[in-house]
Structure formats: C-alpha cells, structure tokens
Specification:
Blueprint (H helix, E strand, L loop, with lengths): L2 H7 L3 H17 L1 E3 L28 E3 L20 E3 L19 E3 L26
Parallel strand pairs: 1-2, 2-3, 3-4
C-alpha cells in the first residue's frame, strides 16, 4: 500500500488486520467497535458494512465509530436496519443526518462534535432515548 493510498484509506496495514478481526467478531456478536482507528469517510471497512454479501450490516446491533475523523456519516451505516446503538463521539461531525430508516436505533451518542441540531426537521432524532449531552 502506498503512502497516498494508506492516507486515503485512513489506516495502516497493521490496523487493517485489527479491523478485519473486529469484523469477524462482529459477524458473530452483532457488536462492532471501530473506535479510535483513524478511519475516514472513505475506508475499506465500509464495503463490509453493506447489506449485500459479504456485508454484515444486518447483523450489527451496536456500532462504535468514536474518535475517528469521519466528518460525515458513511452511507453504509444507513443500511444497518437492526442497529440499536450508534456511538459517534469525537468524530468531527458537523451536522446531524436523517436516521428515519434506522427504526430500531435507541441510543445515539454525538458528544464532542461541532453539531448544529434541529429536532424539528423530521430526521428521526426526536424518538431516541435521552442521553446526557455534552457538546
């Protein structure tokens, strides 16, 4: 992997092995912790989170993407229709996103982001369980 390609992907070969192991585990447990792995909005990991084979999107119930430089939500997350908990703390997120298709989502953690939140725009955020908010 060249240095420019590694930068675009957002992780080194060593962390790719770690991510791959976490994906295998998540396929069995439904819990995927990808926190603090220097992931970007463009990364090899997102293709495995698709609902299409070999994706595991429908098996994931809890996803932690905290402390990554995402800025925007990878579109593959929206296909995780069984997702109950989504953690996005310290991801440099700047705006909320519609979660209407994530009907089972109960917990969304967005602390330490530079967000502008408007609960009146029909994005589905108003139906979530209350969590302490420390922006």
């Amino acid at each position: 992997v060249s240095s420019s390609s590694s930068s675009e992907i957002g992780h080194s070969k060593g962390s790719k092995k770690i991510i791959d192991a976490k994906l295998v585990s998540a396929n069995k447990t439904g819990v995927l912790n990808l926190a603090n792995l220097d992931l970007k909005s463009r990364s090899h990991v997102w293709r495995y989170l698709s609902p299409e084979p070999p994706g595991i999107a429908l098996k994931i119930k809890s996803l932690d993407l905290s402390e990554n430089s995402l800025k925007t939500m990878p579109r593959e997350v929206f296909s995780m229709t069984n997702l109950k908990s989504l953690y996005l703390s310290k991801c440099n997120m700047q705006r909320t996103f519609p979660i209407n298709n994530l009907e089972k989502l109960l917990h969304l953690k967005l602390d330490h982001n530079d967000l502008e939140i408007d609960l009146s725009d029909g994005d589905g955020l108003d139906r979530l369980a209350a969590l302490p908010l420390s922006l």
